[in-house]
Amino acid sequence: MTGVGLIGYGLGGATFHAPLIAAEPRLRLEAVVTSRAEQVARDHPGARVVASAEELLGDPAVELVVIAAPTPSTTPWPRPPWGPGGTWSWTSRSPSPAPTPTT
């Protein structure tokens, strides 16, 4: 089973991403970065709420990260710690340019 981290629990994260992750038997929602801890606890009791993307990316139980938050316009997302052997992809529908992945 693949441990999934979710960044963002607004409309997209709560309505689309988290339920789809929970419905897929090969995935397990491990942790969520959000200020909506009570909602996550109610909707996904087994998932932990963490304070930051850095904390989520450093969690060894998280093998896949879904970003359900707006593309940052002034502050780049933290670099994933996976290094050259890891996978980092970005899909954005935002008019802001997506950050350039670095390994």
Low-confidence stretches are 90-96
Major sheet description: 4 strands, parallel
CATH class designation? Alpha Beta
Written as H for each helix and E for each strand, in order along the chain, the element string is EHEHEHE
CATH level-two architecture: 3-Layer(aba) Sandwich
Rounded to the nearest angstrom, the radius of gyration is 13 Å
- The shape, in one word, is globular
Mean pLDDT: 80
**Total beta strands:** 4
- The quaternary state of the protein chains shown equals single chain
Helix fraction bin: 10-25%
Secondary-structure-based class equals: alpha/beta
Superfamily (CATH H level) name: NAD(P)-binding Rossmann-like Domain
What count of helical segments does DSSP give? 3
Helices and strands in order:
Elements: E1 2-7, H1 11-23, E2 27-33, H2 37-43, E3 48-50, H3 53-57, E4 64-67
Parallel strand pairs: 1-2, 1-4, 2-3
Q: What are the main properties of this structure?
A:
4 strands, Rossmann fold, single chain, 24% helix, alpha/beta, 103 residues
